[in-house]
Amino acid sequence: MGGSGRTFGVEQLLADQPDDPMSAGRRLGGALAAVTGLGATVTFGAWVEARAFIVRRVEVPVLPAGQRELRVLHISDMHLMPYQHRKIDFLADLGGLRPDLVVSTGDHASSPEAIGPLVDALGPLLDVPGVFVFGSNDFAEPTFHNPASYLFRNSTPDKAGAELPWWELQAAFTSRGWADLDNQRARLEVAGRTIDLRGTGDAHAGLDDYSAVAGQPSSDADLTLGVTHAPYRRVLDAMVADGVDMVFAGHTHGGQICLPVNRAIIDNCDLPTSQASGLSSWTSEGRTAPLHVSAGIGTSPMAPIRLFCRPEATLLRLTARA
Ligand SMILES: [Fe+2]
């Protein structure tokens, strides 16, 4: 066919190739510079975001009818290093929230030298009734990973790092009255209420033994809570089927590197990514309970970045059911 219209396809692509190789090189160089600049900008933004701590506030109607509210501070995944002064200041300020109960869902410190600063920063909170479980990162120092590798597969527990003195942290917490819930139960009197709590070890590392805490809630408790580091389905299923009133977990870092806004790509366990952070619910054997997953306060020191997922502590106001 004749005509003067533009020709598309291979013929046109060939026609668009520049005759001057130097010109092509400049264009390629410009494109690479633009991509590199964009990557550096996003990485810098993610580095800044990992230091932009916030306190989220959530209401959960889970108490027996007629009871006044309980304030529960949920902290998780600090991964503290001793040089992280901004994070230490954030932790120290949390005492001003005046919670009735503190729940810590693990991965507290990433070096032996961070345990002292962590305990000092938590100072006033350790005078409040509290409970904790450990995450696998409480037991070994981190080793280098490609920060982006977890976007493509769940991590495996780090066995290569040197052992951390988790027993020092355990002693520091329990000597101040916090209860260790790693495959253990506890009963606390909190703001005039009797609260039963049960927890497991880190399911991501296979340290969970729910059978050690299984059973129906006591009828003389005002509230029964489940606490675990990694919210694997087997742990949530067992806790909710037994009838706990609410479950707290951490581990996911909310996805850490997310799509806008707070949409996790992966959560490093078998929980649906839509539940990687915040308040949702879990149903098992006909029972449903609120599930709160903290996006966490820190990251591995080897990957100190977050994208569309700010580091957080959460103040949950537990209120009476309608
Ligand atoms: Fe963590």
Features:
single chain; 322 residues; alpha/beta; Purple Acid Phosphatase, chain A, domain 2; 6-stranded mixed β-sheet; 6 helices; 23% helix; 23% strand; globular; disordered N terminus; binds fe (ii) ion
Structural category: alpha/beta
Mean pLDDT: 90
Largest sheet: 6 strands, mixed
CATH architecture: 4-Layer Sandwich
Tally of extended strands?
Answer: 14
Tell me the name of the CATH class: Alpha Beta
The molecules bound to the chains, other than polymers, are: fe (ii) ion
Query: How far apart lie the N and C ends?
Result: 77 Å
CATH superfamily: Metallo-dependent phosphatases
Helix count, DSSP H or I runs of 4 or more residues: 6
Give the strand order of the largest sheet, numbering strands 1, 2, ... along the chain.
1-14-2-3-4-5
Query: Spans of 5+ residues with little confidence (pLDDT < 50)?
Result: 1-18
Radius of gyration: 24 Å
| Global outline | globular
> How are helices and strands ordered from N to C?
HHEEHEHEHEEEEHEEEEEE
Helix coverage percent of residues? 10-25%
What fraction of residues sit in β-strands?
Answer: 15-25%
Annotated CATH topology: Purple Acid Phosphatase, chain A, domain 2
Number of domains: 1
List the helices and strands and how they pair.
Elements lengths: L9 H7 L4 H29 L4 E10 L6 E6 L9 H9 L7 E4 L10 H8 L7 E3 L33 H10 L3 E2 L4 E6 L2 E7 L23 E5 L5 H10 L3 E4 L8 E2 L3 E2 L13 E7 L2 E7 L18 E9 L2
Parallel strand pairs: 1-14, 2-3, 3-4, 4-5, 7-8, 8-9, 9-13
Antiparallel strand pairs: 2-14, 6-7, 10-11, 12-13
Helix pairs in contact: 3-4
Bound molecules: fe (ii) ion.
